Amino acid sequence: MTLSLQGIGMTSLRTRERMIKRLLGQGIYKEKVLEIMRDTPRHIFMDEALASRAYEDTALPIGYNQTISQPYIVAKMTELLLRSSDHLGKVLEIGTGCGYQTAILAQLVDKVYSIERILPLQRKAKSNLWDLKLKNISYLYSDGHLGWPDYAPFDGILASAAAAEIPPMLLQQLAIGGVMVIPIGISGQQTLQRVTRTTIGYDIEQLEAVTFVPFLSGKE
Q1: For all residues of the chain together, what is the average pLDDT?
Q2: Which neighbouring-strand residues pair with 194?
Q3: 28-73 pLDDT, tens digit each
Q4: How many whole angstroms separate alpha carbon 54 and alpha carbon 74?
Q5: Which of 14, 25, 28, 148 could be stapled to 75 by a disulfide with Cβ–Cβ 3.0 to 4.6 Å?
Q6: Residue 52: its pLDDT value, please?
Q7: Distance from C-alpha of 37 to C-alpha of 22, rounded to nearest angstrom
Q8: Environment class of residue 50 by beta-carbon count within 10 Å: exposed (0-12), middle (13-18) or buried (19+)?
Q9: Residues 118-139, mean pLDDT to the nearest whole number
Q10: Residue 9: how many other CB atoms lie within 10 Å
């Protein structure tokens, strides 16, 4: 890794503080989420040529037709997953990507089980997360629709790609009382949803319009 963890110039702590002020203005309120967003070097998760834009409120390309989500979306989905708690046990992440959302989750939950269908991206994410010395993460190269039944049920599930409908196997792998945060819909018509499993079924909340890459099947 050639980029400094601390950052300089447009990747410095001062720049990150501006990001946190913006997140506060956008309605992110959980102090622990804000603290971890400030302290996690987002710039190391992208190519050096884009590092100076790391703390802008925008999604940026990470290769393989994938993106790193804008800071607001990462913070919002994390906050929605935690609900009224600042801590969860086991969380399943669908779409490791470059590993940034994984890094945020790993500092808030006991264990992250992260699935990625694009092998070179998974390898890059592992390297990034190892540099941050985050060891409470397990990785699976697989189709995210299948989830990770060996370690189910999960207290939380977070998906970083938009499905046409909620994958049934993910619903089955959510613990009673557990929460799933997932974008649903086709391009241009996607809505962030929060699903809570109850003893008698699932409560689904429609939250806000979002834009994500599609939730694809298979592996690359």
Answers
A1: 91
A2: 181, 205
A3: 999 999 999 999 999 999 888 888 898 999 999 998 889 999 999 9
A4: 13
A5: 28
A6: 86
A7: 12
A8: middle
A9: 95
A10: 9
Q: Sign of torsion, CA 16 17 22 25?
A: positive
Is 142 noted as a catalytic residue in this protein?
Answer: no
Question: Which pLDDT does position 11 carry in this prediction?
Answer: 55
Counting every residue written for the chain, the total comes to 220
Catalytic residue among 4, 69, 114, 160: 69
Claim: this prediction has a pTM higher than 0.85 = yes
Chain segment 164-199, per-residue pLDDT in tens? 999 999 999 999 999 999 999 987 799 999 999 999
Half-sphere exposure of 148 (CA within 13 A, CB side): 23
Cα distances from 207 to residues 87, 144, 183, 184, 195, in angstroms, run 22, 22, 9, 11, 11
Sequence-separated (6 or more) residues with CB below 8 Å from residue 49: none
Three-state DSSP at 218 gives coil
- 154 φ, ψ (degrees, to nearest 5): -105, 145
Residue with tokens 């109850």: 198
DSSP string, 85-148: -S-EEEEEEE--TTSHHHHHHHTTEEEEEEEES-HHHHHHHHHHHHHTT--SEEEEES-GGG--
User: Please, are residues 207 and 193 in contact by the beta-carbon 8 Å criterion?
Assistant: yes
CB atoms < 10 A from the CB of 133, how many?
6
